[in-house]
Amino acid sequence: MSEHNAKKYWKQNIRYLLLLLILWFAVSFGFGILLAPSLNKFSIAGVKLGFWFAQQGSIYVFVIIIYFYVFLMNRLDKDYDVND
Amino acid sequence: MDVQYWTFAIVGFTFLLYIYIALRAKASSTSEFYVAGGGVHPLVNGMATAADWMSAASFISMAGLISFMGYQGAQYLMGWTGGYVLLALLLAPYLRKFGKFTVPDFIGDRYYSDTARIVAVVAALFVSFTYVVGQMKGVGVAFSRFLEIDYEWGVIIGVLIVFFYAVLGGMKGITYTQVAQYCVLIFAYLVPAIFISLIMVGTPVPQLGIGGELSNGNSLLHTLDQLSIDLGFQEYTTSKKSFTDLFFVTAALMLGTAGLPHVIVRFFTVPKVSDARKSAGWALLFIAILYTTAPAIAVFARTNLLNSVNQISYSELPGWFNNWEQTGLLKYEDKNGDGKVQYYNDQNETFNKEIAHPNGWQGNELFVDQDIIVLANPEIAQLPDWVIALVVAGGLAAALSTAAGLLLVISSSISHDFLKRWLKPDITEKQELLSARISIAVAVIIAGYAGLKPPGFVAQVVAFAFGLAAASFFPAIVMGIFSKRMNMQGAISGMIAGLVFTASYILYFKYFGGTPEQYLWGISPEGIGTLGMIVNFIVSFGVAMVTPKPPPKVIEMIEEIRIPRGAEKAHKH
After folding, report:
1. Residues 260..299 of B with a Cβ closer than 8 Å to A: which?
2. What is the DSSP annotation of A11-49?
3. Is residue B483 less than 8 Å (CB to CB) from chain A?
4. Could you give the ipTM of this predicted complex?
């Protein structure tokens, strides 16, 4: 792979990482902790929303984030012909 | 058949299963011994990682802890799962591409320095050893509580089982036993949870049951909040405490999870880089099944407790109450001599003045150990005896699987990182394999001995393990992958600064009489690893800026690990 392509591949990878890490931070530290008191005014399936994110929702989103990452990276690897 | 026969039968059966697997999965090379030959399917590895990760504490104590902490318990739930996102995105695929056997391997090669390697070895040994002693203790407790075997014999039986399959099979044997252990522990955890959810809110899915309605039509959580306030406790679903500490503890547990060597090495066992990513997904999915059930169990148990014991006369309490009193996990002391149980928050001054004292209550009379929440669940829900036996087997599976993973890290640190890569690089593969077997055998015995006479500090060292992993391995590895500028001088001084800062903070507050009022910004020792990581980053970059760039060979290696193609099985060196 050319140096130019390698750089582009890495840049796109970093972009995905930042996007997914922002999501990771938002659902746990954001919705689960910092914003929990205000989110508690709403509720989901009988549970206050902030509490739900802190003890249930964030974990579901974590799982989804990883599978989404797998999907994005597999596609990216193929596009740049570096898949293994 | 009574509980005891069931327990012997089920525990005996699971142990035979582990031994059978060990005999089928004997390791014949160092690669098989350290990383199971690098040919483990990502789903299988995910399951093994889940068992490796979920310890006796996750299985037995966590739901109970959350039950008493309420909302704040989220620090364990998010902290011990969120780290897998970091692992999957920032560490696992690149370390898999790097393709050697251990974490010190990476640190030593990437920072072209034996000093870095040795710092990593020492940290890995310390982290893993403190952790494994707790598992041995868990094995001893499970045996002594349910089988009426002495605590000591419980530990010895546990040691023998681990000894057998870890020494024989190394990572290969451990991986396949962990798969079996995951199945045992998750089944054992879910069965009582499903029944309790059915009984309390009429749904078989505990994750939905948490938002369910009680038979009188009231919302479960609303009822629990009200009951908590009525007895002077903090409302269950919210917290009045500062969010700073919650934030830092959650972050430290996440960063620590991502930096724990026994978790990281599991990702060396899959064939490809893309498999390492997938495997992290599977691992978290399997972990999430338990971790989303635990908060539901916590809510059910707490509601049950608050609802059913306060102001009830002692003689009318259910049978399980007396059974558990005998184990010392439940204690009742009739302080005001009225023959009834008063269970309330006697630390709450306003509540004492307004309700407790006028009613003649003279302090909380019931002491509940957190472990009882999971252990007594089947009895409280009046489930058959075999379910109780299953929970014992599950607790043992959780403890043994984690112990084995940790012991492997200890063994590979000694035989591979210390002996082969540093002290005596000219030993043959056969000699290295033999020394790996010997060191795991010695490690099992030392861990067993420490489990027999647990030093007083063990209970408090979880903070250490996570804090040190967060302050040393996590930043060192991440910088090694994502920064081409990071050099030997920066990484070593960063690791040392992070370790010293974190260790001295924990030591000061745990052993040298520091009081919570002196916490830096209100951060407890459990959360200080987060700050330790930041210290590490700052020192590393500061030092790296004024010292030479890493040599071209290392830059090449970094470029190499950033591209997935070309990852063979963890290769020999």
Report:
1. 272-274, 277-278, 280-281, 284-285, 288, 291-292, 295
2. HHHHHHHHHHHHHHHIIIIIIIIISHHHHTTSEETTEEH
3. no
4. 0.95
